[in-house]
Design brief:
This protein is an alpha+beta fold. It has 2 helices and 7 strands, in the order H-H-E-E-E-E-E-E-E. 24% of the residues are buried.
Length: 134
């Protein structure tokens, strides 16, 4: 029954925070920031870096391409949280990498991965400069 007590405490804490106008933890983690490529951190729970993506990219639930989300990250200025090494990936135009970056895609999937080949600043087979490891 300790679980029920913990659940009540967490629920009460969240309700109080919301009543006082605070953002819930998930919203704070995805707070907006308008800094340039690779610069800046949010004031929320996780660092957020902005990079320009040069093409639309399919998103995945992990750094394994067997787990596609059905979502896409559109080309443009996008926010990224961290990076991790995973399955090798080619963009079909000669760029290859084993690095995957965590982001929220353009169709509403949160905390998904796209290949680092989509980032303008990414170098083949190397981690993205300035982006922390997951």
């Amino acid at each position: 029954m300790a679980y029920e007590g913990t659940l009540r405490t967490v629920t009460a804490t969240l309700l109080c925070a919301l009543a006082l106008g605070a953002a819930p933890p998930a919203a704070a983690a995805h707070a907006a920031d308008t800094r340039q490529d690779g610069a800046g951190e949010s004031e929320g729970f996780s660092p957020r870096r902005y990079y320009t993506t040069w093409r639309d990219s399919r998103s995945y639930w992990s750094q394994d391409t067997r787990y596609a989300t059905g979502g896409w990250l559109w080309a443009g200025h996008n926010a990224f949280f961290c990076q991790i090494e995973g399955e090798p990936h080619s963009d079909g135009q000669g760029r290859m990498t084993t690095w995957w970056v965590l982001t929220d895609d353009s169709v509403g999937n949160l905390d998904v991965f796209v290949s680092a080949t989509a980032l303008r600043v990414a170098e083949p087979w190397k981690p993205v400069d300035g982006l922390p490891r997951c």
